Amino acid sequence: MTRSHATPIRSIEARAYRIPLPAPESDGTLEWDHVTLVVVHAAAGGVTGCGYGYSDQAVIPIIAQLLVPRLLGTDAMATNASWRVMKGAVRNLGVSGLCAQAISAVDIALWDLKARLLDVSLMQLLGAARTSVPGYASGGFTSLSHEALHDAARAWRDAGFSRVKIKVGRHPDDDPARVATVRDAVGAEVEVFVDANGAYTVAQALQMAQAFAPFRITWFEEPVSSDDITGLRAVREHTPPGLAVAAGEYGFTGDDFRRLLEPRCVDVLQADATRCGITGWLRAVNLCEAFHVPLSSHCAPALHASLCCAASPAVHVEVFEDHAHIEAQYFDGIPTLHDGNLCPHANQPGLGLRFREGDARCHLAC
């Protein structure tokens, strides 16, 4: 469409849906039995954009009371200006955590709206670098038995994934055996990743890196807390060759990503647009290019497939089991999976997603 003037934002609505899981799950440091999906719709110029994220219903009043009043009537195309306005609105509360997740959900909706107003896909608006991106299967929770873990890994391999990731760290003594179970299930050709969610100490992480070596593990995610910059760097410097250390999923700002990249704490930076927004994601892309470090997305595969297709440093998308199931159940237009690659619908405007609110209404939290 041709635009000669601003397109004012007319409405922004946010809702949270508390979606129960079939069974409790756990990783190295956390247990959960539900996922909270936050969905934002933003309207301008007779068009509605949709953004979403995984957070808590506590973000809804932040959006409604702090963000929406400052955005209504502003230009829907001015995403950088909207980002600055939202950051300013939460200054006294802190820009990380829940506030960042609230901002991110709105930011995603505004980028989707902008692309829809221009009648182009988001990946085209951002400048597509490819038409598909490799995905890696992710789950393998510490709550699973060895038999269930074996079956899950085998199913991922059979679905065409060439990379699979499991959780470790809750019971360190059992972790090498769990990794062996997965290697047996997927065979020699599939890469195996592990994610400790910051559960290990530096000494434990280095010990585990050696213990995992016979199973040709190629990815060690958050071996220690991402807050422990010194420890993370120590692990990266002393892991066996071929084992990439990854972190960054808790990056809320560009400074968070820079703090991992400048001291060379990671071999691969992770970024999650549901925590840093699409605007923050683009800053992570630029930082990865500047530091010559690959980028991988964290969770929310239906969202990140389009973003990674537009990001030259991106190497793959995490197809996290919980989020993949939720997106398939409550959204139309999710990217297709072909030979382990995610393929966004490049001929659809925006993210190409449509939220099926009627199907999710029974889980409405606020």
Q: Give a short account of the largest sheet.
A: 8 strands, parallel, barrel
CATH fold-level name of the largest domain: TIM Barrel
| Unreliable stretches covering 5 or more consecutive residues | none
Q: How is the largest sheet built, in terms of strand order? A: 4-5-6-7-8-9-10-11
CATH homologous superfamily of the largest domain, by name?
Answer: Enolase-like C-terminal domain
Over all CA atoms, what is the radius of gyration? Answer: 20 Å
CATH architecture of the largest domain: Alpha-Beta Barrel
Tell me the structural class. Answer: alpha/beta
Beta-strand percent range: 15-25%
From N to C, what is the helix and strand string?
A: EEEHHHHEHEHEHEHEHEHEHEHEEEEH
Number of strands: 15
- N-to-C terminal Cα separation, in Å? 35 Å
Main CATH class of the largest domain = Alpha Beta
Number of structural units classed as domains? 2
Please count the helical segments.
Answer: 13
Mean pLDDT across the residues is 97
Residues in helix, %? 40-55%
Shape: globular
